Amino acid sequence: MVIVLIIDVKKNIKLLETKGRIMKTIIALILVAATSVILFTGFKPGDVQTISGTVTDNQRPCGKLVTSDGNEYTIHLGPYWYWEENKYVLNLSTAQIKGDVKGNDIYPYEIVQDGNTMVFTDDKGVPKWNKDGKGRGYGKGNGKGYGKGDGRGNCPRNK
Predict the structure, then answer these.
(1) Radius of gyration (Cα) for the chain, nearest Å?
(2) Is 124 left (phi over 0), alpha (psi -120 to 50) or beta?
(3) β-bridge partners, 57
(4) 3-state DSSP call for residue 133?
(5) Strand partners, 72
(6) Which end of the chain lies in a sparser environment, N or C, as judged by fewer CB atoms within 10 Å?
(7) Does one domain contain both 101 and 72?
(8) Domain that holds residue 12
(9) Based on the domain organization, do 35 and 56 belong to the same domain?
C-alpha cells in the first residue's frame, strides 16, 4: 500500500509539473500577443503631429512636404484607388498634414489644402481603405502593404 501511494504521489507531481509548463507557455503566448497588439496598432497618440509646409512633389506613391525651416518630409499617400474614389488631389502648394510622424516620414490622418480636407483614417488611426482589414488586395505585399498589415503602404522611392 505504501508503494502504491508513493507511485501515485509521483504521478501527481509529474502531472502538476506538466500543467505548470503548459500554463507558463500559455501566459508567455498571451504576453507576446498583447505586446504585438500594442506595438503594431495604427493609433499611438504620442506619434500624431500636425506639420505645415509646401508640397513639392505629389507623384505616387509618396509626396514631399518642405516646412518653412527647411525640413523635408516624405508623405506616404496610400492607395491610388482611394484617392480616385474620393476625388482627392494633392496640389503643389501649401498644406497642413495631421498624421503619424516617424522621423521624416508622415502617414497622414488628414491633409488640409486650399480649404479642402482629405481624410485617410478613422479616430483610431486605422486607414479608411482598410475597413475590413484587407484593403482591395491590389498591393504587392511588400513591407506593411495594403493587406493585413497596418495599411499604410511602403514607399519604394525610399529604398
Answers:
(1) 25
(2) alpha
(3) 64
(4) coil
(5) 66
(6) N
(7) yes
(8) 1-40
(9) no
